[in-house]
Amino acid sequence: MASFEEISLVLLSSTKSAESEIDLTALVETYSPLLFRVSHSLLRSRVEAEDVVQDTFLRVLQRHRSLPEVRDMRVWLVRIAWNLAIDRVRRRKTQHADADFIQTLVAPNIPADKALDEFRRMTAVLAEIERLPKPERHALLLSSLEELDTAEIATIIGRTESATRALLFRARTRLRTRLEKGARR
Amino acid sequence: MNPHEEAIDKVLAALRDAPVPQHLDRRILNSIEEAHQSQRNTFFGNIIPNEAPRGRSPGIPAFPATRTALACCAVLALAALTLTHFKRNTTPANTATSPINANSPAPLASSTVSIPPSAPRTPQSSSAKAHGLNTPHSANVTSHEDHAAISHPAPPLPLTEQERLLLRVAHRGHPNDLAQYTSERQAAQVEQEKAEYLAFFEPPKTGESE
Question: Is the CB of residue A144 less than 8 Å away from at least one CB of chain B?
Answer without folding.
Answer: yes
